[in-house]
Amino acid sequence: MSMMSAIDATTAAAHALRFRPLSKHIGCAVEGIDLRDEVPPAAAKAIYRAWLDHAVLLFRDQDLTQEDLIRVTGIFGEFAPLGRPKHTLPSGFSKLLPNIMLISNIRENGQTIGALPDGEMMFHHDTIHRDEPHKATLLYSVEIPTHGGDTLFASGTAAYDALEPAMKRKLDGRRAVNFYVYNSVKRDDKQAVDATSQAVHPAVRTHEETGRKALYVNRLMSVRIEGMEEAESEALLNALFDHSERAEFVYTHVWRKGDLIVWDNRCSSHARTDFPSDQRRLLLRTTVKGTCRPY
Question: What stretch of H or E contains 222?
Fold first, then answer.
């Protein structure tokens, strides 16, 4: 193929893309692309721009190998190291590539093969409990139960924009303490002393690429506001949690086999609904490394 033909093909691939908003404030479906194919630079650029604009991208009806998932993850940045050890491979998998985590409730020989196996999970930002939280998470569905296990995505940007000016002033310069206890899917304040990982971040985060501000606290992992009395901190956090989880800021995703979703951890939080424990659920997850203290 000549250089001109290659350029034409790249442009055509970018023009074939269609972007369909999923809700008023967050989420966008990307159509007209098969991610098994190499993504041309112009198409990758358009996808990345849509991701910055919408925080959550959905690619339906994909049939991806692990190698495909690794390649697509590279569109969004540098791989983050796995935060947990590899688990047992499910039947049908001959290997698990580095940088891929299993999210699954499947049990073989009495042992769970993946992470985050069962039940609902409250709203949270991935790895906010670390000094360098992940920039992005990608999740690809392999097996999905008949109902439940939906993922809710909340726009921290829209939630911040909707705050009263007085609340914005109150949050200015404030920092929140975030903790995590592995294998916990519901917050228990008593677990704070047993946190396996904890970090302090601004309660309002300025996105380093868009310059927009977003609420950066969540119900599962944010435990207190620095410099406030306990009662005041608790009241403020609960008010922020309730505000950020309002239906108008949330897109609820009902999974289908072959869905790939990528979300921006810097300006969105997410939660999971319960699902039948006797039905198999298996997804492959990759994460993108965040920059050091970008705010």
Answer: strand 222-225
β-pair type (56-59, 28-31): parallel
Q: Which two tokens stand for residue 229?
A: 């009395």
Task: Decide if 189 is inside a domain.
Answer: no
Tell which residue, 108, 105, 116, 60, has the closest CA to residue 88.
108
Q: State the total domains in the chain.
A: 1
Residue 183 falls inside a structural domain? no
Length reported for the chain: 295
CATH number at residue 25: 3.60.130.10
Is 197 a member of any domain?
Answer: no
Distance between CA atoms of 180 and 258, rounded to whole angstroms?
30
DSSP string, 18-34: EEEESSSSS-EEEES--
pLDDT digits (tens, 9 = 90+) for 188-208: 554 444 546 899 999 999 999
| Whether the Cβ atoms of residue 205 and residue 213 lie closer than 8 Å to each other | yes
- Other CB atoms within 10 Å distance of the CB of residue 55: 29
Output the pTM of the full model.
0.89
Question: Each residue of 230-248: pLDDT tens digit?
Answer: 999 999 999 999 999 999 9
